[in-house]
Specification:
The protein is mostly helical. It is about 80% helix and about 0% strand.
Amino acid sequence: MLRTWDRWLSAALALVLAGNALAMLFASLAWYGAVPGVTSTGPYNAHFVRDIGAAYLVAALGLAWFAWRPREGWPALAAGAAFLTFHAAIHVYDASCGASPWADVRRDFVGVYLFAAIPLFLALFRRPSHD
């Protein structure tokens, strides 16, 4: 069952993800230096950061569409949730292979795991009915 709170939560997360995406797209070097843990993933690659920023923007737009028109926007939400969930899974794998996995999980908990879990929850359990 869809609740008004679900739409507000989706809209708020869309704004946060869109802000991150725009920083990645238009201030990629500053973003690279500012986000904890990013510099440990390898040397700065502007093209790669902007590519991922584009994916984040698409996920944000899917969340926004769901917030605005849940029935029509649910497929876009599901696609955005899929990207965010696979991205989080990569972080889980990388943390499990790293020297300090729990520190990595703590560092990424909100910005990666929680921001993937919320859209995944909405996509799985808050699909609007079509009656």
